[in-house]
Write a structure and sequence with these properties.
Blueprint (H helix, E strand, L loop, with lengths): L2 H9 L4 E2 L14 H7 L1 H7 L7 E5 L6 E2 L2 E2 L3 H6 L12 E4 L7 H12 L8 E2 L15 E5 L4 H8 L3 E4 H7 L27 E4 L6 H13 L17 E4 L4 E2 L7 E2 L1 H16 L7 E3 L4 H17 L8 E6 L2 H19 L27 E7 L2 E5 L22 E3 L2 E5 L30 E3 L2 H11 L4
Parallel strand pairs: 2-5, 2-14, 5-6, 7-8, 7-9, 9-10, 10-13, 14-15, 15-19
Antiparallel strand pairs: 1-19, 3-4, 11-12, 16-18, 17-18
Helix pairs in contact: 2-3, 8-9, 10-11
The protein binds magnesium ion.
Magnesium ion binds next to loops.
Keywords: Signal
Protein name: Haloacid dehalogenase-like hydrolase domain-containing 5
GO biological process, one term: glycerophospholipid biosynthetic process
């Protein structure tokens, strides 16, 4: 047993199964014989790697890494997912709300962190489901975000891109908040800006006031910022990704995410027009369309690793009840609605998805389980004052006795605060009100290794 595993055994504090499968006996003496007596079909159908029917969806931040630091049990957990040749033996995808990278860069980063070869086809970024909105590929889209936004948009299929920097170069007089940056004449190399036909919001930009100004200007003028503001309504289509209000980086408290930026945009639009901003697409977790897209990726990965029968059970492993748990539970409800209907069912957050062009035939998930990982904080011995945050309530400090591991202090947070009287609602506007049951995990574990261990035992897989 390696040192990480020994550490892991100390770290686990408890495991709660809220909706154990009826045939499942959760104790150390569990045996295939007992299972076969309870449900022989299930036992023989699930034993052995070639007959397993489950796939995994992993959140990244707070489950596998904290900032740029890999969490201690993650590499050992992933060793259980691969065979002796280093190939995945369980269909696995990574579902993150990050949006400022290309998928292959995230796959390279994951491969390095986990010591497992991850392919870009296993990575679902916040913006990945936008490839389903092909009716916008030939439209002139104004893109907001940071990082290689033009490249990301092109990779998704969008062909006519204008960036906020292009707008500022062509119309600098519209950007007035920072007095020191005020310009009245356009850059001599400024591109000619065609009429904008839609907005593409990838993630939080660097200069919020600049992006907010140009986005509102474009909406108010129906795509021609040199025209008269008419506040036409319905306004231009808006495709937005990543609605996280806050996210965890290395800082000692949560940081503003793209959800905070969208909140500003919604509030400004309402103030200046008196009307509600409408999203044609709002993708990334917890949107069902992100899980729909993730399921297609899981089924695809299953074929790729030699599993030719349908994957019927999905486990989504995450640390945030507002996104990972809520999102998987929403998808579970979507599947129930779809199963009970002969029509194609629209998804919340995907008004603009053209259902007539999607057959949904490749989707076979019947059982969806959300797995809450109670986060750990790893910090250096020299800075123990950087104590941990509650990833679920997002701003509660918890002080616990740490374990020392090499040169680090590791805290098991027990992040879910049962004593909390009032949980602030951080879910995006379009997903409110949230039913409390949709934020309840199916399974709660102490770390990602325990998540894998629990799932393998439930599925009788080793
Ligand atoms: Mg997370």
């Amino acid at each position: 047993m390696c040192s990480n595993i020994r550490l892991y055994s100390k770290l686990i504090n408890h495991c709660t199964l809220l909706d154990s499968l009826p045939f499942y006996s959760y104790n150390a003496a569990f045996s295939g014989y007992q299972a076969s007596k309870l449900n022989p079909t299930r036992f023989f159908a699930t034993q052995g790697r070639n007959f397993q029917r489950f796939g995994l969806l992993f959140d990244i931040d707070g489950v596998l890494v904290r900032g740029k630091k890999i969490l201690p049990t993650a590499p050992d957990a992933f060793q259980r997912l691969i065979d002796s040749a280093g190939k995945f033996r369980v269909p696995t995808v990574f579902v993150t709300n990050a949006g400022n990278k290309l998928r292959h860069h995230k796959a390279e980063q994951l491969s390095e962190w986990l010591n497992v070869e991850v392919h870009e086809d296993q990575v679902v970024m916040a913006h990945s489901p936008l490839k389903l909105f092909d009716q916008f590929f030939e439209k002139q889209m104004l893109v907001s975000g940071q990082g290689p936004v033009r490249e990301i948009a092109n990779n998704l299929g969008f062909t006519k891109i204008t960036t906020i920097d292009d707008m500022r170069a062509a119309y600098p007089q519209l950007d007035c908040v920072d007095h020191k940056r005020r310009l009245v004449k356009p850059d001599s190399n400024a591109p000619v800006i065609p009429r904008i036909e839609g907005l593409l919001l990838f993630g939080e930009p660097v200069r919020w006031e600049t992006s907010l100004q140009y986005l509102i200007d474009v909406l108010m003028t129906n795509g021609n910022v040199m025209g008269t503001p008419t506040s036409s309504y319905p306004h231009l289509p808006i495709l937005a990704c990543n609605m996280d209000l806050q996210w965890m980086a290395e800082a000692n408290m949560p940081r503003f995410g793209h959800g905070a930026f969208l909140l500003c945009l919604e509030a400004l639009f309402k103030k200046v027009t008196g009307k509600d901003l409408i999203y044609t697409a709002l993708v990334g977790k917890p949107s069902e369309i992100t899980y729909y897209h993730s399921e297609t990726m899981v089924q695809h990965h299953a074929r790729k690793i030699g599993i030719n029968h349908p994957i019927t059970t999905l486990y989504a492993i995450g640390d945030n009840i507002h996104t990972d748990i809520f999102g998987m539970n929403l998808y579970k409800e979507y599947l129930l609605r779809r199963r009970g209907s002969t029509k194609k069912i629209a998804m919340q957050g995907a008004r603009g998805l053209d259902l007539s062009t999607h057959d949904f035939k490749g989707l076979t998930a019947e059982n969806c389980y959300s797995v809450l990982v109670k986060s750990q904080l790893v910090c250096s011995i020299e800075m123990p004052q950087m104590l941990l945050l509650n990833f679920q309530s997002e701003c509660t400090l918890i002080f616990l006795e740490p374990y020392q591991f090499q040169d680090q202090l590791i805290y098991v947070t027990g992040v879910y605060n049962e004593n909390e009287k009032h949980v602030l609602e951080h879910s995006p506007r379009d997903f409110l009100p949230v039913e409390a049951k949709l934020q309840e995990p199916s399974i709660t574990v102490g770390c990602v290794y325990e998540a894998i261990d629990t799932i393998f035992r439930r599925e009788n897989f080793s």
